[in-house]
Amino acid sequence: MGLGEHEYALTATWTGDLGTGTSGYREYARDVTLAVDGKPDLPASADKPFRGDPSRWNPEDMLLGALAECHLLSYLHACVTEGVVVVSYRDHATGVMTEDGRSGGAFTDVLLRPEVVVADASMIEAAKSAHEDAHRMCFIANSVNFPVRHEATVTAR
To answer: What's the rounded Cα separation, in Å, for the pair 44 and 80?
Structure first.
């Protein structure tokens, strides 16, 4: 790998064989275990409308989570470089996935709604503008073909 290239690996294991494999659409569970060396396994499935287990993470949850976490981590870095001290950050992210009527679909929009608290009121404006820097830095947002918007609120403690 070259400079600045990072490689990631995981194992996705289907655990949903109910005894007859994929002999019919309703004859198997959509359960999957995602594993990365050195990390706890992640129980996954399809989303409930697609016959999945709603107690497990689904691909749509994970994509939204990846976008929200990437923005959060990029934002914290941007704030450090701007001298902004973040003391709290919580994001209530939402995404829209639209089915195409041909057994497929795609995400069409994600909205991040970070609620940020900074150490001092003098940091609020720099904290607001740091969201633009974070958006430009986020590897995951730069990898998708739909808009990732943000509507942040920033207050001081």
So the answer is: 35
